Structure prediction request, 108 residues.
Amino acid sequence: MNVCLSCGACCAAFRVTFDASELESEGGLVPDGVADRETSTLYRMRGTDYTRPRCVALVGEIGKAVHCGLYRERPNPCREFAPLAEVGQFSDGCNRARARHGLPPLDF
Ligand code: SF4
Ligand code: SF4
Prediction:
């Protein structure tokens, strides 16, 4: 089973910033309604810069059962972060995110 579906920590730990060209209104996939403007060229997933970060697109309970509600439309940083974890090759980033939620480290 994909460990990410029982984790989700990275979606509630790091700021997710992406290029404005990824917005739906700019011809990309990410719905404009879930993004906040950072600069003239950068946007971020709403919620990921909060004091207790959690992406608005994350569905479920971290560490139990989660999924990305915008999986097909998610921005590039999300596409780049998780694939290794999905095949069992975890990163330091995973374990840092998991630690923020009191979850044990994954084996490399
Ligand atoms: S990429 Fe890592 S931190 Fe994110 S959900 Fe998967 S295992 Fe958890
Ligand atoms: S868009 Fe999806 S994968 Fe990316 S941070 Fe939000 S919930 Fe996680």
In short: The chain is about 20% helix and 15% strand.
